[in-house]
Amino acid sequence: MASELNLNILLAEDNQVNRMVTGKLLKMLGCRCTVANNGIECLEYNTTIMT
What we know:
The chain is an alpha+beta fold and about 50 residues long. The protein is about 50% helix and about 20% strand. The protein contains 2 helices and 2 strands, in the order βαβα.
């Protein structure tokens, strides 16, 4: 790809197939992707990095 997005993405998705597909697409676009299995994990991760 000519230009990469170079973004940090926190992906919250409870469906394993959707996580895998979306994660691969984001990586193809040049994004760094952290995956949370659900909304609660996402909030816990967000709280951890904010403190």
